[in-house]
Amino acid sequence: MYKAERLISPRFSRETPRLLNLSAQAEFELSSVIEKISGGAYVFEDRECQICNGNRFDILAEHDRYGIPIQTTICCECGLMQTNPDMREIDYKDFYTQHYRKLYIAELVGQPEEFFREEYWRGQRIVDYVLRYVKIPKNALILEIGCGAGGILYAFKQRGYRVVGTDLGVDNMSHGRSMGLDLRNGDLFDLELHENPALIIYSHVLEHICNPGKTLQKVRELLGASGHLYIEVPGVKDVHRNLFQGDFLRTFHLAHIYNFSLRTLTNLLKKNGFERLAGDETIRSIFRPGKTQVTFETDYHDACNYIIHTENWRGFYGWAFRRKNAVRNLFYRIRSVLINMLKRTGLYSLTKRLLS
Ligand SMILES: [Zn+2]
After folding, report:
1. Which of 70, 159, 166, 326 is most solvent-facing, going by the fewest CB within 10 Å?
2. CA of 30 to the centre of ligand 1 (A)
3. 266 CA distance to ligand 1 centroid (A)?
4. C-beta of residue 73 within 8 angstroms of C-beta of residue 61
């Protein structure tokens, strides 16, 4: 494999101190992961690009946001950002089973109701987005891979759909099951279904999968001719306005093997027999089975320009993010005060009726 040294900036070199601090529990998990890497328990191997099978990469960063020594690269042919060299599947399995949740979402471990509520909120937005583009008959089957506590599926269930979810982690599953959801432990390849789902959901999952091509082939087989696939991943061209606050170092971490733009995601899907129905750079997207296309539209130059621009304007984007949050918080505080005032004066129900 050929690699060129081309870090985004000196901040992305191995010598630079890590960006984020962690809780004591997450700090313990981080030490265990770094020990497994430095001790050779986790093995890193060079990979070909999943889209173009290329083997020329520019190096973007030598460590992730927590200082874990992984290399994030961009493919010089198609522009897909990816960890390379990358851990073996068996190492990722150990990482997800033993460390992932405690390291990345430590604050929600042991709080399945909170976890469910956060998923349910996202689920309502996903239902609205999907139904804007796809007509799905009531009572159709919706499948989610990597369903967590099942909150996203619960939003679909409330709209009259039958739902099934699978996840490798069982931490939060019992809460979803107690809400009447059919949640199964396992992955896509363990799943037994007696009909084709109308929709398969991958919400913040595809970027974690070692071999997305193999997964997408299986998804296509499961969907049949008329199903749809919803994919949500953190978009690399959304960094200037999302919670990463214009800082690429916040986006890179061991759990994200791939960092997609809408174009590189679409290239991957086309290669595996899908066509895009809708999508944005957030990234929310809908695909349906289509022709397999081996040709691709490169994102290399666009992605490099975006990275350089974002890094140059990082201070401004961080400032804009904080101002936007401050305004939003102020709005919610004022709203809460007004609602309390109306409730105290007995005018709340009347005002709600007048405004609806
Ligand atoms: Zn490539």
Report:
1. 326
2. 30
3. 13
4. no
Higher pLDDT pick, 269 / 170: 269
* CATH C-level class of 106-301: alpha beta
How far, in Å, from the CA of 80 to the mean position of ligand 1? 6
pLDDT digit string, tens, across residues 177-207: 999 999 999 889 989 999 999 999 999 999 9
What's the whole-model pTM score? 0.88
pLDDT, one tens digit per residue, over 90-118 is 999 899 888 887 887 655 556 788 889 99
Question: Cα separation of 109 and 185, whole Å?
Answer: 18
Distance 312 CA to ligand 1 centre (A): 26
Half-sphere exposure in the Cβ direction for 238 (13 Å, CA): 17
Percent of the chain topping pLDDT 90: 63
Ligand 1: centre distance to CA 49 (Å): 5
User: How many angstroms separate the alpha carbon of residue 60 from the centre of ligand 1?
Assistant: 15
Find the helix or strand (DSSP H, E) in which 325 lies: helix 314-344
Half-sphere exposure of 209 (CA within 13 A, CB side): 22
Question: How far is the centre of ligand 1, averaged over its atoms, from the C-alpha of 298 (Å)?
Answer: 8
pLDDT at 1: 60
